[in-house]
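Q: Convert this sequence to structure tokens.
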Amino acid sequence: MNRLVLLLVLAAPAVGGDWEKRQAEFYAKANAERKQLGLDANALRAKYPTPQVTFSGTGSGGGSAGASCVALCPGKTGTFVVKGKLPQNSLVLVQSNDVEVVEEKQTSTGWEATVKAKADAPPELLWVSAISAVSGIAVSVPGLEIGCEHTFNFEVAGDTMVLKVTFPCGKEETTANGEWRRAGKVLGSYTYQVRRSGHSLSLHRQVPQEEAMAQGQGTMAVMQSKEWKALDTRFNAVMAKVQACTKGPQAQMAACMQALQPEMDSINKERQALMDASDKKNSLKFGCGALDVQANAGKLNGTANQCAGHKQDDRLPVTGTYTSP
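A:
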């Protein structure tokens, strides 16, 4: 049985997209009916209780009857059932404007629907909510999603990456290989951990063990270098002066410490320069190690970091497109 998220709705939410508008109108109607009936909280829950439902996939778009997950391909239709007890005239809806309910009906055993995903819908997990008539008590169940293979074309600082990904049904994460090119020439590829959340997509390169070890050794080498040790000596000298400031007259302590700040800033700057040089030595030869984008109507927009030729934390703009066959 899928996990339920229980909500007791006492006020209508702000009207947004189509599904939100339909939900808001239902809440407004329920609120008016509650006032008209004048039931107390216990009587209200008894007569219009919490929906007791589970998700079940059936027919096209999601496999066999009873499936706990239905993956809709963009532009395609699928059917599913919300099984269980629903007070008459309750509302069931998909919490997304990327899915259109083509046909629906409430039955004695639950709610059945045929739905169609938009052709430009990104891969996303969806919730189906069941809202009790009058009381407005709601539960939400997972099980429906936009799935199937998606091809993403990322553009970063003149380079491009093509990544094809298919999420396992019901999963937020998977892995996929991305191929980087420059002016049509293949530069190489990386394996990414890909995570989806709503219309957001995050990619993080899987770092091979030997590379991670080399990076760690590079950091240790910097911290054991004579340049770093010289900075340690300067730092310790500054800290000794700070300690002396705390033992002096209270009225002069702030000015005493402020006079030491330029030297402290210089030490930090020189340390960062040493670390940046080490990072550059061990940085990527092409592409980027991390990308975070928003996917909307076939377009990609976001940022990337850990990119070749840049500092690790420099964030570069990302644009691109995505399609699904």
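The chain has five helices and 17 strands.
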